[in-house]
Amino acid sequence: AENMFIANRRVNIMQLIYGEKAPEEIACNSISNSAQGTRSKNDERPLKYDEDFFKVANNDTGNAKILEAIDSSKSYFDIENLDEWDDETVLESIRNRFITGSLEDKNP
Amino acid sequence: MATKILKFSGHNYFRQRLVLATLSGKTVKIDKIRSDDNDPGLKDFEANFLRLLDKVTNGSIIEINYSGTSVLFKPGIITGGKIIHDCGTARAIGYFLEPMIALAPFSKDPFNLTFFGITNDNVDLSMDIIRTAVLLQLRRFGIEEGLELKISKRGAPPLGGGEVNFKCPIVKALKPIQFTDEGRIKRIRGIACCTRVSPQNTNRMVDAARSVLNRYIPDVYIYTDVYKGEESGKSPGFALSLVAESTTSVLITAEQAANPGETPEDIGRRTAKLLLSEIRKGGCIGSPNQWLMLLFMVLSPEDVSKIRLGQLTAFTIQYLRDIRDFFDVTFKIKQDAESNTLLLTCVGVGYINYNKKTT
After folding, report:
1. Domain check: are B276 and B291 in the same one?
2. Could you report the per-residue pLDDT of A43-73, keeping only the tens digit for each?
3. What is the maximum span of chain A, computed from C-alpha positions, in angstroms?
């Protein structure tokens, strides 16, 4: 059963990336998806978000500037969330990505 | 060869489609470019990019309709050679240089490009990152000798005034890569630069960045790069770029340039935090370079290439789709649940540059 689940998920992530959805939305969504790991990728919520996303882009021409900036490979969409790096536990959570971290627990 | 025309709409992802068209030799038509906008059609920098593309190729046909909302591009061959281009000030040089890096190895003559414009800003990749990280990644594909980016003048927004020179050798074919080991970060390097402001600003940025990063490793060294007089462009500004290198020479980057009113301490800390969040994403390539690695994997010989990536950016996802449209290559994407990363595998199309004689 576990193997089937993993195989299924692989198809899902390929469907997700080569699917119809706007890439911006997948990129935003994949944070929560990969963080929770097991959540189903094709639940209803992203679709609703999809509609909202296009409405805003069409109505509000002010958004054009945001869309404009996307033709750049440098997209730091998490620039607002940097305050979390003042928190000690968050800082320690990536300790193992450095050579100074302990070798036993290799999970980043 | 190019009988079928590929059609796209919208102004987004403009550069990558033209670059992929040039490499694949397929004609591309992009319409509905801001057709509903108050200011319809191509922007200056996009027209400028078309001009640059025309300079580096021979025999390209570019047709733009009267209102500028539709572009037909029939690619010629990539000729390269010595080219001088003024990038204007709407976008930084990175906007123009990035796609050129993708074309350069497959040119007839080695590229020797001189660009004028903005070297560091917050929208496009800065010259420092391209020099210290992006170009080093090309080594994995066998592009090594003669690869050079020289920043002879710096230019901060809004007026720019920078000058860079990019040289790239040509190759017959790329090498496939197997790049799945992230390793651990062993050192952090960086460049703090300033133009037309007190050199003290660079030291303040360095101190602020170190205050965040030194808790992880002591091996943090940030160069200060102060340009004076003519070499410092037309506008005052300062910027910081950081590169973290792992034991398997994975390079992860972050950079920030100052907006008006920001202190060097703000920039230093913000860049350091950005670097940390890039590191947390995992993967063997920092998010700005994902597309280049994937493109070169597709262009490598008919062999399996494999790469581990962290979170995909929107830009990369669209790139994967466009690669599928142009080269008919679909990546096999596998999620590694243990480390929250993605393994992307593809078989190259065996792209060969016939202009390069056998070595």
Report:
1. no
2. 333 334 444 444 333 334 444 444 444 577 7
3. 53
Using 50, 70 and 90 to split pLDDT, how confident is the model at B152?
very high
Task: Point out the residues of chain A with pLDDT beneath 50.
Answer: 31-69, 106-108
What six digits make up the tokens of A34? Answer: 């990969």
Sign of the alpha-carbon dihedral angle for B272, B277, B280, B283 = negative
In chain B, positions 177-236, which contact chain A (CB-CB < 8 Å)? 182, 184-186, 212, 215-217
- Looking at the complex, does the CB of residue A102 fall below 8 Å from at least one CB of chain B? no
CA distance B131 to B150: 8
Q: Which chain B positions have a beta carbon within 8 Å of A34's beta carbon?
A: 311, 335, 340
> Would an 8 Å CB–CB cutoff place A96 in contact with chain B?
yes
Is 0.90 exceeded by the ipTM? no
Q: Which domain holds residue A23?
A: 2-73
From B232, B259, B281, the end of a domain falls on B281
pLDDT of amino acid A108 = 42
CA distance B131 to B300: 23
A residues 48..77 contacting B (CB < 8 A): 58, 61, 64, 67-77
**How many structural domains are present in chain B?**
3
Look up the domain containing B275 and give its range. Answer: 185-281
B86 and B43 fall within a common domain = yes
Asked if residue B2 lies in contact with residue B74, where contact means CB atoms within 8 angstroms, the answer is: yes
- In a domain? residue A79: no
